[in-house]
Specification:
This protein is an alpha/beta fold. Helices cover about 45% and strands about 15% of the residues. The structure holds 1,3-dihydroxyacetonephosphate (13P) and iron/sulfur cluster.
Length: about 325
């Protein structure tokens, strides 16, 4: 089927089945263009919690689909490709995390939303990059805290909040590939450009940032808060689609990833998992109402609590 026919069919099926299409900023531009709502992981969870649709199609990665299912267990939650995982979520196996939590009684457990439902089972409050600082600040100063799984976001939060949270040693493969050398090289060519960094990047990269924040925060800064006209972007390059759409007069330069130590590679700074969402698969999943996200009801009951706490604290 050609692209325009695919788009028409997706629109028809979405109406017919009362489905809502949610997409993350890292997905392909053509997916973002057809979605009912595009957002960062916090906004996507908030949207899922409020929707009156019968079917939620999550164009993102598996944990985002699980979050929708946990928030809306009575709804059908579809993802275009069940293989759309997350290297960061993979860096935190639930059993090992459960053991880590058990070995530290008396600690409050904060988990980044980029975790499986089974990890959320062991969690007291879920956070995203968009609200993590606010959530940490809401806890008493002497609270003992475990933070998982992202060591870079955790270290950044320790630095800005003055806490000493115990960190799980996980990371995102895509964000770990950005290097300070690549940013400094771009800065030489574009001395007036502001540097935008996602907090999943290493500290050496974050130190060069003019703005550190979630995808939504970086977008807002670039499109509406900053007067600069050039931006060096150290996060997954899918975000450039919305940046360019909101601020067509500005220039956004993606940071090329480091392919091996000290060697700057191509512009392929993409999350391979997010890119598994295609128009063809979106059409197929709406038509066949599969693949569907399933979460064990016992896990849903427990994992819902830390997500609800996050949504409550983010109001
Ligand atoms: P945001 O919460 O900033 O959208 O990030 C999600 C993500 O997967 C980052 O790699
Ligand atoms: Fe996971 Fe990294 Fe992809 Fe985000 S960019 S979904 S953290 S693998």
């Amino acid at each position: 089927m050609d692209k325009s026919k695919l788009i028409k069919e997706i629109e028809r099926l979405r109406k017919e089945k009362n489905a809502v299409i949610l997409a993350h900023y890292y997905t392909l531009g053509e997916i973002q263009d057809i979605a009912d709502f595009v957002g960062d992981s916090l906004a996507l969870a908030q949207k899922a919690a409020q929707t009156e649709a019968d079917i939620i199609v999550m164009c993102g990665v598996h944990f985002m689909g699980e979050t929708c299912k946990i928030l809306c267990p009575e709804k059908k939650v579809l993802v275009p490709d069940l293989e759309a995982g997350c290297s960061l979520a993979d860096s935190c196996p639930a059993e090992a995390f459960g053991e880590f939590v058990k070995a530290h009684p008396g600690y409050t457990v904060l988990s980044y939303v980029n975790t499986t439902a089974a990890v959320k089972y062991y969690t007291d409050i879920v956070v995203t990059s968009g609200n993590a600082r606010k959530v940490v600040d809401s806890l008493p100063e002497d609270e003992k805290i475990i933070f998982g799984p992202d060591r870079n976001l955790g270290a950044y939060l320790n630095e800005v909040t003055g806490r000493n949270m115990l960190l799980w040693d996980g990371a995102c493969d895509v964000h770990e590939r950005f290097s300070p050398e690549a940013i400094l090289a771009l800065k030489k060519e574009h001395p007036n450009a502001k540097v935008l960094v996602h907090p999943e990047c290493k500290r050496t990269v974050a130190l060069l940032a003019d703005k550190i924040g979630s995808t939504a925060a970086l977008l807002k800064y670039a499109a509406t808060e900053s007067n600069a006209t050039e931006f060096i972007v150290a996060t997954e390059s899918g975000i450039l689609h919305e940046m360019q759409r909101q601020a067509p007069q500005k220039t956004f330069i993606p940071v090329p990833p480091e392919v091996s130590e000290g060697q700057i590679g191509c512009h392929c700074n993409e999350c391979a998992y997010m890119r598994l969402n295609t128009l063809e698969k979106l059409y197929g999943c709406l038509k066949d109402e599969k693949p569907e996200i399933q979460v064990d009801p016992a896990i849903i009951d427990r994992a819902r609590l830390p997500i609800d706490r996050m949504l409550e604290l983010s109001k």
